[in-house]
Design goal:
Layout (H helix, E strand, L loop, with lengths): L15 H31 L4 H29 L1 H18 L8 H4 L2 H26 L6 H34 L7 H7 L1 H7 L2 H5 L22 H32 L4 H17 L3 H8 L2 H21 L3 H29 L5 H30 L1 H24 L3 H6 L4
Helix pairs in contact: 1-6, 1-7, 1-8, 2-3, 2-5, 2-15, 3-5, 3-8, 5-15, 6-7, 6-11, 6-14, 10-13, 10-14, 10-15, 10-16, 11-14, 12-13, 13-14, 13-16, 15-16
InterPro entries: MFS (IPR011701), MFS_trans_sf (IPR036259)
Pfam families: MFS_1 (PF07690)
Keywords: Membrane, Transmembrane, Transmembrane helix
Amino acid sequence: MTKLLYLWRDRPRFHHDVNMLLIVVGLVAVSFFGIQTFLKTFYVLRLGYGMVFFGVFNSASALSYMVMSLPAGVLGSRLGLNFTMRLGIVVTVLGMAMLPLTESVPVIFRYYWPVFSMMVVSGGYALFSINMVPALMGLTSDENRNSAYAATGVIRGLGAFVGTPFAGLLPGLVASMIGVGLDSPAPYRLALWLSPAVLLLAIIPLLRIGDAERSGKHEEKPTLAGSFPVVPVSLLILFVWFSQAAGATCYSFCNAFMDTELRMSTFTIGIISSAGQFASIFAPMLLPMLARRRGNGWTLLVTTVGGVISMVPLILIPQWFAAAIGQFASMVLSAVRMPALQVYQMEMIEKHWRTVAYGAVNAAMGLSFTLMSFGGGQIIEKWGYTSLFTLGVSLSIVGVFIMWGTLKRPTPMVAARGAVQ
């Protein structure tokens, strides 16, 4: 634990704007990754939608993120990182407020209203997240960069950990107050309103951030912009697309599997999710140590392998403890993997191309989630959950080999920084 906590030795050297950005990340985590992500599944299922629609519902979110990722990078380059991040938060709040209005909109819009709401939410989140990563890159130095990105992972895990168990308890409390059962959508609808209310608070620290392109203490040496790094970015896109598959299936369907197949209570599911979120708080603290010893690319490889292994029990033994292992490991490994991916990509690409390239890579991530979510509902209806989880694991194995090959021939910028050893 002492080695993990060394991350915070770099904290006093973080720029004021970095601290403000970390506060925003925390509020996003509580509202988006905690409250809304947990409750939306049960609300949609209580509205009477089937698994095919649920797959479309999840895929719409991923599709919107995919479609908006590249435009988000372009907008950040042209309009500024700060403006685009603020716009993203506002759009996300509006999308979150749309979902609990599903039962109130005209009948002609009602069936697909949850899909529309998720498209707005994910589109807004893309505007924020795509520009947050390069903004953080410009505000940190080589010495504290991994610590800063790891801090975002820690705060994201802490925020989700706070939001998830509260979201699991809230429907029961609301149901007892209004006198309805948990099979009614009303408790979930009312609980969902907390999500946009929390996220709206993020506007305050965002307004206190100066020019994200100019306010950092650590300026990179100016260089002439070269051509877009097509080959390394293409390989990274392929890696992200394949490697995300196992995690995408669990992220989209593990809660639904425990709810519809295993008949577990939302409180129990919330406890399992909370355990994963709690471990995810500390997991990113491993990143600076792993990056210094073996590099960010190696970290990506190992976490992908771990994701594959963690899903095997769920395939072989489709019981609650296997689902708990898969969900727990998926959250923990993702908490290490995401900041490692962000730093790895930022360091392999020239400053001029970072927002566009990061948008392209996140579009691939969104495509992976879209296909696994949309196709997952169809696969579950025809062949069951086990077939879907098996497909996700198989695709992630392909991602392992892609990263292994990439590490054999690192880009000049990565090799120069010593990011790959």
